[in-house]
Amino acid sequence: MKFQTFLFTLIVLMLSACSSENERERPGDADINKEKDVIETHGSIENIDLLSRFTEHVQAGEKSSIKLIQYTTEGDPIISQLEYSQKLNYTLDTTYDSFGSGNVYEHECDSIKMNETGAETTYYLMDCSGEGDIELLTVSYNTEEQDYFAVSLDSPHYKLNSARKEWIEKLEDTEKGTSDFQLSTEHLNEIYKELVFANYLEEKTLSTSCDPNDDQTYKLEVSINSGERVFEWASCDNEEDSKEMTSVAERIIDIGKSAAQPE
């Protein structure tokens, strides 16, 4: 009986040790900063603007670094670390991927470039040791790949509604509409791109309280597939999120103006 008790205890201890080891190595233990890392989760991308900024720094010869986290279908992170200081060093860490090779790969690359089309932006690492060119990440903003995409913007001087095909200019005492207004697929892709690069899916710190007259406020509604995001803010709000969303809104207005121009 004593031997059986000892054997049982030994097995429990061994299983506990294995469990502890697995706990230490589980994918969730990867060092991930949700504010400073570029994170791709099944096509949804956070902080993509940071990768664009890193690309600009490298091309300008400025020291910089960035980390890219890409989640697998099973939810495991694959980590790309990029460091630039005269040379561009690329480290690919697959050790957190339960179904991957479990290796860490290191390359020295010549440069990084960004290739843009009307539907996507792809980042490439150029002339990497042992690999040649490496496709790092592709950001898609093709609205035709979505089941539904529509945008509505109410700004201090203009209103745009893609679903209702409305473009309205706010004059001093009246409003002037444009007949036969319609955004093309290219226009919608441009708008979607602005939203994606502004991380529109993330929570934003926005306020309208600085505008007591409520006449310099923006309201932006984005409908995509079965989801909707609504943003409201005043142009006098000096927080970074409000500045960024004002820039997005003004870009949407420029696209609306272009679409409203007679051919």
Q: Count of DSSP E strands?
A: 15
**Main sheet makeup:** 6 strands, mixed
| Largest sheet strand order | 2-1-3-4-5-6
Distance between the termini: 94 Å
Number of DSSP helices?
Answer: 4
**Helix-strand pattern, N to C?**
HEEHEEEEEEEEEEEHEEH
Radius of gyration equals 25 Å
Percentage of residues assigned to helices: 25-40%
Q: Output the structural class.
A: alpha+beta
Given as residue ranges, the uncertain stretches (5+ residues, pLDDT < 50) are 1-28
Strand content: 35-45%
Molecular shape: elongated
Mean pLDDT: 88
Quick overview of this protein structure:
By secondary structure, the protein is an alpha+beta fold. It is built from 4 helices and 15 strands.
Would you mind describing this structure in some detail?
- This protein has four helices and 15 strands.
- The radius of gyration is 25 Å and the shape is elongated.
- Mean pLDDT is 88; it is low at 1-28.
- The chain has helices at residues 2-25, 48-59, 185-197, 240-260, and strands spanning 38-41, 44-46, 64-71, 77-85, 87-93, 104-109, 111-116, 120-128, 132-140, 149-154, 158-161, 166-170, 175-177, 217-224, 227-234.
- The protein is an alpha+beta fold.
- A hairpin with a 4-residue loop joins strand 11 (158-161) and strand 12 (166-170).
- Strands 2-1-3-4-5-6 form a six-stranded mixed sheet. It has a six-stranded antiparallel sheet with strand order 13-12-11-10-14-15, covered by helices on one side.
- 27% of the residues lie in helices and 36% in strands.
